[in-house]
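Support case: adenosine-5'-diphosphate complex. Customer-provided input:
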Amino acid sequence: MMAAVVFAAPAAWPGLPDSTLCRYALGLQTALLLACVAVPWQRLGRLAPLAIPVLDLVAIGLLRDGSSAGLPDPGVLSVLPVVWISASSLSAPASLWLSFTVPLLAAAPWLLADRGAPVAARIAEAVLVPLMMLAVSLAMRFARARLRHEQWRIKSKEAELEVLLSDSRERERLLNTILDTVDVGIVAVDADGRRLLTNSWQAQLEESAASADRPNAAVPAAGPAAAHPPSASLTDEVPEEEGRLVLTGQDRNTPLPLERRPIHRALGGESFADYLVCFGEGPASRVVSTGARPLKDDADDFRGAVVVFNEVTGLVDALAAKDEVVSTVSHEFRTPLTSIIGNLDLVLADTEGLDSPVVRRVEVAQRNAERLLALVSDLLMSASAALHVHPRRTDLAGLVEASLGSAQAHAQASRVSLAMEVRGPLWAHVDPLRISQALDNLVSNAIKYSPDGGSVRVSATTGDGLVRLHVEDTGMGMTAADADRVFTRFFRSPAVRDGSIPGAGLGLSITKAIVERHGGSISCRTRPGHGSTFTLELPADGHPAAS
Ligand code: ADP
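Agent response - structure generated as follows:
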């Protein structure tokens, strides 16, 4: 700007070169410009460069005298050095003092000396620019203080973030270690089925079940578990890729359709537990019990799911071996028992010539042999994995009537009255033989567990494509804990075990298996001393079970 003034002066302000103060000002400016370049400021200390803006203010002060030579007041140029001073590392009071006093001292003597203008105008002219510079410096200082505060805030936030980040890294490491230590497989998927996490146990399981003839194995086809560092890692598989795994049903042979696979079920929003599937096929397959829970966000929207895989091959094999033994032994018992019962029947068919005590003993032997045969049949059925049902259109009212009819003698002997509140025909899509067996079990239990007599009522309701049969008694009932376990094989309530009521604890588990084979369900409502109600839910006719 000084250079522009110098160049423009001859034409614009011819009196300017004659002003001594202006010449000093321009000379000082030139010296300062050279000093800026020539002096090694870095070596002279932190505050040394401030000599430039201070002397610049002096030069501008001298130049202000040029206004008398027709030059517009150049005092406003003081803004530039004042900004420099205010932005420097100088303390706030020092920079405010410099910003005010240097422009004042540099220009005041000559401005005040101007005898042509009134005193008040001269004072105002001398003080106005220093005051403006003080205001600029103050504003700069405030802006700087604010900036510093913001910087400090950002820095402290940064420090907090750093701490949080290191905490979360620590947690992630801990989580990964836990995930890789546990003996179960864990998979987390987002709502689109992309894998968010697969722990190393699961990676190994999937590796063993990856189909060899399908090129895109769900997990790398080769390499040990260590080839997945970090094992609980982020991957971006799509749901279709689950199809690369060979998954079969519990028979270890039938391929599991995609929609029945645990991850697909979980992605459908299902929450389940103890869902058995086999990874791989044939004898080398691994039976895995799976469970899933949906992941929801704050708005309760579905964001994905976590699926857990727990290998139960050993347990399933042991149970199968046990069932095999039970069914072989039961089978071996049946033939001699049938022969014993047949012979006893023959003896009782012609009791002439036999003493009545002998006949009574033979009858006792026959009753016990029949009980033994019934027990062996129950054992055989509960051990047999394949319980076949052949559902067809069946009148349940007829089955209930037949069941109550055959229980009549037992009920009379136990002083229990039987009532049927089922209006026929009541059509359902069931296997009549199996459902009769289930009803017989429930009715005979209702009588058996009413040791002091009472009443047994069978009623029915319909709705939602289901037929519900209720077998209600006024007998001994059960505790809630007993009711929870009542459908478990070999379970007998402590009260019953301590008493003398015979039984093996198999009837209800068989009944449950029969009902579930039909796609139905069974439930129990009971209170100790107030009787029990067992409810069968079966598909109504026209609603075949989705087995
Ligand atoms: P079992 O009758 O041969 O013991 P179940 O499987 O039929 O075997 O029944 C299992 C157990 O459930 C019984 O031992 C008994 O403790 C309880 N239970 C079943 N039905 C009833 C009932 N109607 N009232 C009270 N307890 C019952």
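The domain at 392-539 is CATH 3.30.565.10 (Heat Shock Protein 90).

Case will auto-close in a few days if no follow-up is received.
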